[in-house]
Amino acid sequence: MLLRRIICTVRKTPLRIKYRVYNNPLTWAMICGVGRNFFNGNLGRFAIPSFLAFTTIVYAQQPDKKVDDEIVEMADNLYDHHEVDKLYEFLSQYKDSKNDEIQWRLARAASDKSKKETDETKKKELTYEGLHHAEIAVKLNENNFAAHKKAIALNPQDATSIHSLGYWCFVFADMPWYQRKIASMLFATPPTSTYEEALKYFLDAENVDPNFYSMNLTMLGKTYMRIGNKKMALLYLSKAHEYPVKTEDDKDAHKEAGELLASLGVKS
């Protein structure tokens, strides 16, 4: 069939995304008819079940390279607008992708989502998932600086990648014995780490870009608490608590830092 193109501007996040739709009567009906209601946020009787379902239908009919490029563009838009849950849900559809750019973004999305998760079991599962996809990205392309395990060597000025690796180290170091037992059943060689290793990465990230991320300050304070250095824990937790709150991560970092300071006897 001949490819017909339409461009729909989506302002829900506010993202601007281009869709290519094939000459399919049902698809055109959804776009030109109730699809118009969908984009206006007013779902009609035959509207597509979800935003992600629609993008999947469209992407499935495009050449692989072009599809990958558009997936990356979509993912970056969601990331730029701090849509953590939507980004993870979107990229999870492509978990078997052979594109390293998609894999490392999924690793980052899983890591970011784990930080929001309150259930400890789910938090660990997401952390393992992030590590898994980061390792896949490295295997697919060892020269991709954004694949976290190689990021530090290839791009030592990327504070975000250094922080992510530190966070994984902290999670593995903080894992109780029964979860280590479960991990040993899932992995031939379960990941292990120490608080000292996590601390090194958090400090490295801070040295590369001071005060770049409120959660890095909180994690520094938290890690110092784990190794019994109250003085340094108070220093970084105070910095995190005073950090300007602009994003959801800042909000979470502020809240956790305040709770940890209170546990150390500091009154807010």
UniProtKB/TrEMBL annotation:
* Pfam families found in the cross-reference section: RMD1-3 (PF21033)
Q: Provide the protein's localization.
A: Cytoplasm, Cytoskeleton
Key words of the record:
Cytoplasm, Cytoskeleton, Repeat, TPR repeat
Q: Which InterPro entries match?
A: RMD1-3_a_helical_rpt, TPR-like_helical_dom_sf
Tell me if Cytoplasm is a UniProt keyword of this record: yes
* Source superkingdom: Eukaryota
Q: Which Gene3D superfamilies match?
A: Tetratricopeptide repeat domain
Q: How does it assemble?
A: Interacts with microtubules.
Protein name, UniProt field: Regulator of microtubule dynamics protein 1
The gene that this protein is the product of is LOC106819252
